[in-house]
Q: What sequence folds into this?
C-alpha cells in the first residue's frame, strides 16, 4: 500500500515537473519569436519610399483592358512583378492569387518581356489575360530591379510597402505594414522592442 502511494506521488511529481518545463519552453519560444520573427519582404533602395504617393499611370492588360495605377481607388492594389523564366515567380503566382482573393486586394501581374513570352507566361501560370500588364515603365517608376517584386498601393494612392518577395509570408508582411503603420515588419518589431525596454525601465 505504501509502495503504491509512493508511486502515485512520484507520478504526480513527474507530471508537475513536465508541466513546468513545458511552460518554460513556451515562454522561451515566445521570447525567441519576438527577437527572430519571420522576415518580411526585402526592401529595395530605388524609387519612391513607402508612405509616398505612388506614380499615377495607365497601362493596358494583354486583353486590351485599361489598368490604372496610383490615385484613389476602392480597394488596395497589389502589383506582382514576375518573369516567365523565373521559377520563384512561377511558384508565387498561384499563392498571390489566393492571397489577393482572401484579402480582397486588386491583383495585377506585371511583366517586361516579348509578347510571345508573356503569352507563354499567362498560359503556364494560368493567369487571366486581363490581369497581366506587359510594360516595364511602371516598374521603373517605383524602383523595381529584381524579380519577383511586389508593391502594395493603398486606397488613397500611397505606396504602403514594397520589396522582393518569394513566399506567402513575404506577401503577408506587405499587409502587416498597412495594418501597423510601419513600412516593414522589421521596423514594427524594432519599435515594439524599444517600447518594451522603455516600459521595463
A:
Amino acid at each position: 500500500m505504501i509502495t503504491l502511494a509512493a508511486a502515485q506521488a512520484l507520478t504526480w511529481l513527474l507530471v508537475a515537473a513536465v508541466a513546468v518545463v513545458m511552460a518554460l519552453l513556451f515562454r522561451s519560444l515566445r521570447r525567441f519569436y519576438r527577437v527572430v520573427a519571420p522576415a518580411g519582404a526585402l526592401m529595395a533602395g530605388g524609387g519612391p519610399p513607402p508612405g509616398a504617393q505612388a506614380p499615377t499611370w495607365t497601362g493596358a492588360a494583354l486583353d486590351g483592358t485599361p489598368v490604372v495605377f496610383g490615385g484613389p481607388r476602392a480597394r488596395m492594389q497589389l502589383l506582382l512583378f514576375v518573369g516567365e523564366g523565373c521559377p520563384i515567380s512561377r511558384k508565387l503566382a498561384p499563392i498571390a492569387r489566393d492571397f489577393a482573393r482572401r484579402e480582397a486586394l486588386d491583383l495585377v501581374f506585371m511583366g517586361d518581356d516579348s509578347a510571345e513570352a508573356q503569352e507563354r507566361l499567362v498560359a503556364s501560370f494560368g493567369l487571366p489575360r486581363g490581369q497581366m500588364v506587359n510594360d516595364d515603365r511602371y516598374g521603373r517608376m517605383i524602383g523595381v530591379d529584381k524579380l519577383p517584386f511586389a508593391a502594395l498601393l493603398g486606397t488613397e494612392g500611397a505606396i504602403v510597402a514594397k520589396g522582393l518577395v518569394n513566399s506567402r509570408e513575404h506577401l503577408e508582411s506587405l499587409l502587416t505594414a498597412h495594418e501597423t503603420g510601419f513600412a516593414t515588419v522589421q521596423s514594427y518589431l524594432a519599435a515594439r522592442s524599444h517600447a518594451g525596454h522603455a516600459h521595463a525601465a
